[in-house]
What does this fold into?
Amino acid sequence: MMGLVHVILAVLSLLTVGQSAPVTSCESLTKQVEIKGRNQLLGKWMHIGESTTIAGFKLLTKAFLETSWAHVSAADESDAINVFQSRKMLGDCFTATTKMTLENNSLYMVNPISVPEVLLSSGCPDCLVLQTNYTFGGSTYKGLQLLRFCPDESNLQETKTTDLTSYITSMNAEDLKLLDKFISSSDGIQLLINIITSGLTGLKENERCRVYIVNRSGLAKKDPSANKN
It folds into this structure.
């Protein structure tokens, strides 16, 4: 069960950005602008809002997503960036690192999901608006992401952190087809919510039991010496 939950969370970490936010001028967000090299993308970015064609997506983010941010750094290749993403969901942090390449004024991620992105006009000097197409499982979904630059470069996590990068790199076509079936309908989204909630609740219960057993084991080691009279 937890393997499935982690795969689901890994995909959602690539799709989810932030709580929906009002857009004051839709027309200004339809104009594509030039990406003047990767330097303008580097740094820490807070996810402020999003819009997507994924059915029931607002329900999904409302149920799980608390905070979300990304840190973009230069990759070894001159035309590539590393994107470290952190999502806080149900009190725990989930992270993932992916690589994107800059080509023909667009950003591309190929594996495990085909994700081309273009930069749109934001009307804000410290903001980014990215238009994204997600293609997996035979379906294509569109998204619009609003990010704001954060001068605080701290990557400290306040809670337990689970890295989902290995789950992302190990995904196959069958995993993506299964996810496509889930997110293509509101009923599927609700089923996803139930699976994730049950899985993470069980994981936390197992962790509490593990801590309890460890603590009891420590006490047990002390008991023999304490009872020697």
Notes: The first helix runs from residue 2 to 15. Helices lie at 2-15, 57-64, 165-169, 173-183, 186-226. Residues 17-24, 209-214, 219-226 have pLDDT under 50 and may be disordered.
